[in-house]
Amino acid sequence: MNIQEKLNAIAKERILILDGAMGSLIQAEHLSEEDFRGMNGSGNGRFAGHPVALKGCNDILCLSKPELISRIHRDYLQAGADIIETCSLNSTAVSLADYGLADMAWEISRVAAALARKAADAFSTPQKPRFVAGSIGPTAKSASISNDMGDLSKRNIYWDELAAAFYDNARGLLDGGADILLLETIFDTLNAKAALFAISRLREERNEDIPVMISATVYDENCRILSGQKIDAFAASVLHAGPLSVGLNCSFGAEKLKEPLKILSDFVPCLSCAYPNAGLPNQEGTYDESPESMASKIEDYFKEGLVNIIGGCCGTTPAHIARIAEKAAQYKPRIIPSAPRETLLSGLKLLKPGEAQGPVIIGGQTNDAGHNEFFGFIREGSYDDAIETAQDMIENGASIINVCMDTGFDNAGEAIRSFINLAQCFQAVAAVPFMIGGTDFDVIEKALKCLQGKPVVASLNLKDGKAEFLRKARLAGRYGAAIVVTLIDEAGEAVSLERKIAVAEQSYKLLVGSAFPPEDIIIDPLVFPLSSAREEEASSALNFIRGCEWIRKNCPGVHILGNVSKLSFGFPGNDTVRNAIHGVFLKHAGEAGLGMAIVDPKSLCPYDEIETDLRETVEDLILRGKPDAFKSGIL
Fold first, then answer.
1. Cα separation, 109 vs 115, whole angstroms
2. Is the dihedral of CA 162, 166, 169, 175 positive or negative?
3. Alpha carbons 79 and 566: distance in angstroms, whole number
4. Which of 309, 232, 313 lies closest to 273 in space, CA to CA?
5. Residue-level pLDDT at 459
6. Which of 60, 305, 520, 572 has the fewest CB atoms nearer than 10 Å to its CB?
7. Count of alpha carbons within 13 angstroms of residue 634, beta-carbon side
8. Which of these, 404, 332, 396, lies nearest to 364 by C-alpha position?
9. What is the mean pLDDT of the chain?
10. Number of H helices and number of E strands within the chain?
11. Residue 533: pLDDT above 60?
12. Structural domains in the chain plus CATH codes
């Protein structure tokens, strides 16, 4: 078995024990600046002449005072820890730059893992193997939260810098012998996604299935992290990484952490982990909760079956871990939920399209193709007006917004990044998932690097061949996105029912055969304007509906999307007629399996409210492909 399989096997039998705080024990040593510089003990004075003060840089102690770090590891192993964390919470170039040590990120990470590895191996037995988790902290910077009130679209750090820093951090931890990579104290999911992207690169380079533990910190009693994302939306945003565990740490203490932990425990289809603080800090910044008190509160987790892995964060000591381990030994571990796999999307909030009553509405007015007003806003730099367009769609019923900016822009990448970064500062807009479309995949990537939730990438197709189709799909998956597959191949758009079936079947088999999750596939069978002069396209609405029926039966797990707005492009009727067309089509396509629709929510008329003669005439046009409807006078 590989490491992840071993840990999952143990977790079926008992609750795994994670260690406790590193920083609290270091703080209790009352170390001097000389200690951090390696001038006392076995550090050989390596940093004696370093130009920046090092006191408080706990990670450097792996080099300047390794005997202390090793002792702390041994104390936690003696207390019963199955998994010990490396002293590397701030070992990215981003965090170490504060101490003038950015170029030492890999070395510190490697040595931190090597110290933990040596201690774990000394305590490991066949009956109780010990594991090393490479600690990867969030940095003190946020890729989602603006720190410039003069320009809310700016950030103090961006994806590429984070991903590069996390890559070196993770690479060093693995080189030093870490079994697991632990992303912890996550306050911004976009930072975490950049780290997961870097780890996916290492997985590919090393051809290893590296176990990953993911742990967020709760910011308020509404079960949100600091960036504003709800806990279930956070989980949906990171599950693409196939984590060993998803959990919570730090936060408010064991008692107040239970409610968000329960939400997470009920939701995630993997191991659940928790390691709270020892209560809340006192006026001196230390923690007063005793091992007995904390273990008693954590026992409620065990009674309710909330965790598979338990440990401690700020203020906890080996005594806390020993007492918690005693309690854990008396209970069975959490049973991982066996809920069916389903499509999950998220912004600050979670969206389950499969639970919607009728098709999920996707607002398309933030797409520069065909929406001149929005195009004008972006071209003129009127981003506040562009945001209002998005807000208006959401207020009128859109659950997802479709953003595209690669038509007629020389700086499309910068434009889409500015728009999305600004949009994340408006709660109503940031709450919903984004669907990013366009023909330039580089622009799509720039957008994905700004979204902390789980978005959708539209539209991938077979026009450029199988290899390019799969490359883009895998890359979208590494960013944590679902994908829309439009039914186009080298021969062009699939218009007839036979072509729709053939291209849908080929696309689905290619993706599923390459291990792309079916629940992250959304198929667009293509609908064409009813006003088309070509008879084949004029009857394509019926082909679309029949295509939905076939996809629903033969492509399990996928959702189906339609650009309903296209139906009325160039249509000679008035708004009443166009709204009726959209309402009739949604009714019948929805019954056939359509789950998502790109349409202006204000252009919808409920099916039952459409005047009878108009409804019947539109149904003749859509369901029976009767172009004579144009001549009826009603249309």
1. 10
2. negative
3. 65
4. 309
5. 86
6. 572
7. 18
8. 404
9. 93
10. 24, 20
11. no
12. 3-142+160-328 (3.20.20.330), 345-631 (3.20.20.20)
Indicate the SS3 state at residue 446: helix
Q: Which two tokens stand for residue 376?
A: 């004008």
Give the model's confidence band at 340: pLDDT under 50 very low, under 70 low, under 90 confident, else very high: low
Long-range CB contacts (within 8 A, 24+) of 51-55: 51/100, 52/99, 52/100, 52/101, 53/99, 54/99, 55/31
Residue type, 186: I
Q: What's the per-residue H, E or C state across 64-111? A: HCHHHHHHHHHHHHHCCCCEEECCCCCCCHHHHHHHCCHHHHHHHHHH
Beta strand 488-489 pairing with 492-493 = antiparallel
406 has a pLDDT exceeding 80:
no
Whole-number Å distance between alpha carbons of 255 and 393: 40
Helix (H) or strand (E) holding 134: strand 131-136
> What one-character DSSP code corresponds to residue 183?
E
Q: 389 near 374, Cβ under 8 Å?
A: yes
| CA separation, residue 4 to residues 70, 89, 307, 515 (Å) | 25, 22, 17, 19
Per-residue pLDDT of 248-306, as tens digits, reads: 999 889 999 999 999 999 999 999 999 999 988 887 778 889 999 999 999 999 999 99
262-to-17, 96, 273 alpha-carbon distances in Å: 19, 35, 11
How far apart CA 307 and CA 316 sit, in angstroms, is 18
258, 294 Cβ separation under 8 angstroms: no
Q: How far apart are CA 229 and CA 347, in angstroms?
A: 7
**In angstroms, rounded to a whole number, what is the distance separating the alpha carbons of residues 505 and 503?**
5
What's the token pair of residue 325? 């381990």
The amino acid present at 576, given as its one-letter code, is T
Helix (H) or strand (E) holding 135: strand 131-136
User: Two tokens at 157?
Assistant: 């750090």
Q: Cis omega (within 30 of 0) on the bond before 459?
A: yes
Residue 348 identity: L
Mean pLDDT on 583-611:
92
- Give pTM, 2 decimals: 0.95
Quick one: which of 309, 308, 296, 224 has its CA closest to 253?
Answer: 296
Q: With 0-12 CB in 10 A as exposed, 13-18 as middle and 19+ as buried, what is 609?
A: exposed
Tokens of 421: 């970064």
Instruction: Please give the DSSP secondary-structure letter assigned to residue 462.
Output: S
d(CA 47, CA 108): 13
Token readout for 195 is 């780290």
